[in-house]
Amino acid sequence: MKKILALVLARKNSFRLKDKNKLVLNNKPMFFWSIDQAQKIREICDILVSTDDVKIFNYAKKLNCLVPWLRPNKISKDKTTSAVSAIHALNWYEKKIKKVDGLLLLQPTSPFRKRKTILKSIKLFYNKDCKSIITIVKKKKNFKPNGGIYIIKPSLLRKEKKFLIKDTTYLNIKDNLENLDIDTYKDYLIAKKNEKKLKVA
Question: Does residue 194 sit in helix, strand or coil?
Fold first, then answer.
């Protein structure tokens, strides 16, 4: 039985774009779309939402996500890395629930990621026995993570304390909208223009 823990990190404050995780896209808060994309994927054993925001906490509960606690303030700062928050959630889950094969990080700021891309990433993770997978966007000769999908083996996340490691496998995403990582108001305006393309599964 394949076991992937999906993790959505959605804290209440944000540095560049105020309350970005709760901004509305097609009548839903932005973080909703990451949860919706992960639901009904059989390899995902649970969707855990880590947040210090009471409104996000209550909303995620209604979506039948696992929301066991409000994230401690000490790991909800602007400078707190995703890896630190992810390790906190992973440690709780594997201690209280069960061990998993991989951790799948779905950032709320990538609402246009496709479910088929998640499935492709999980398939690659198992079939190629990858240690870490990150979706990327290529620009000319350079590439960078697009923020959409991160999958990593739990032991490596704890050891490296980051998602981008030496043996990372890159999955190139060519769709411009799927590559949109909403971090500024300009990004949000682009998302609003395309919000009707977001459909509840």
Answer: coil
In 153-193, where do the E strands start and end? 168-172
pTM above 0.85, yes or no: yes
Tens digit of pLDDT at every position of the chain (201 positions): 789 999 999 998 777 788 999 999 999 999 999 999 999 899 999 999 999 999 999 999 999 999 999 999 899 888 889 999 999 999 999 999 999 999 999 999 999 999 999 999 999 999 888 999 999 999 888 899 999 999 999 999 999 999 999 999 999 999 999 999 999 999 999 999 999 999 998
Q: Which two tokens stand for residue 195?
A: 């919000």
Give the integer Cα–Cα distance in Å for 14 and 159: 27
Q: Is 13 helix (H, G, I), strand (E, B) or coil?
A: coil
Q: How far, in Å, CA of 154 to CA of 148, rounded?
A: 19
Question: Token match 């401690």: residue?
Answer: 72
For helices 30-38 and 115-127, the axis angle rounded to 10 degrees is 50
Q: Measure the CA–CA gap between 65 and 6, rounded to whole angstroms.
A: 10
| Full DSSP string of 42-107 | TTEEEEEEEBS-HHHHHHHHHTT-B--SBPPGGGSSTT--HHHHHHHHHHHHHHHT---SEEEE--
**SS3 (DSSP) at 133:** strand
